[in-house]
């Protein structure tokens, strides 16, 4: 895990989910305000003591041919995802000039595709909340009603 300190904000670059969980639990234990982003989109640091940048979490975790689904880490960029999907003859229906942002940032800002937002392309998503709780969200469910681990 990499760490940088600038103007009272500690920025962490976790290498994997384990690092991410450690950072969040340490922030919770010390009552620090945190913000997480995918690493490719500007983020307002005001009022934040810890910034988590997912720029090192860029792995393709899984491809399931039966479900025709991919699992990616949040720091992977749209162009990297499209290259991976193209290799398996898949694509995302995006139109216009698409900024090459991370998938986490694209979901956060509501990137639009030809059939809706990029978030609507998700089958499921694991969300790690600032309080340390891990929520599995499935397409069609409201995050508030999803089952927590």
The percentage helix is 10-25%
Strand content: 25-35%
Number of helices: 3
Give the mean pLDDT. Answer: 82
- Tell me the span between the first and last alpha carbons: 25 Å
Q: Count every beta strand, where a strand is a DSSP E run of 2 or more residues.
A: 10
SS-derived structural category: alpha/beta
Largest sheet: number of strands, sense, barrel closure: 4 strands, mixed
Q: What strand line-up does the widest sheet have?
A: 1-2-4-3
Radius of gyration: 16 Å
Strand/helix succession: EEHEEEEHHEEEE
Uncertain runs: 143-149
Counted up, domains total: 2
Shape: globular
Can you tell me about this structure?
It is a single chain. The chain has 149 residues and is of the alpha/beta class. It folds into 2 domains: 2-56, 2-Layer Sandwich (Uridine Diphospho-n-acetylenolpyruvylglucosamine Reductase, domain 2); 60-128 and 134-143. 20% of the residues lie in helices and 28% in strands. The protein is built from 3 helices and 10 strands; from the N terminus they run E-E-H-E-E-E-E-H-H-E-E-E-E. It has helices at 17-29, 78-87, 103-109; strands spanning 2-6, 9-13, 34-37, 50-53, 60-64, 69-72, 112-113, 116-117, 124-128, 134-138. The protein has a 4-stranded mixed sheet with strand order 1-2-4-3. A two-stranded antiparallel ribbon has the order 5-6. It has a two-stranded antiparallel ribbon with strand order 7-8.
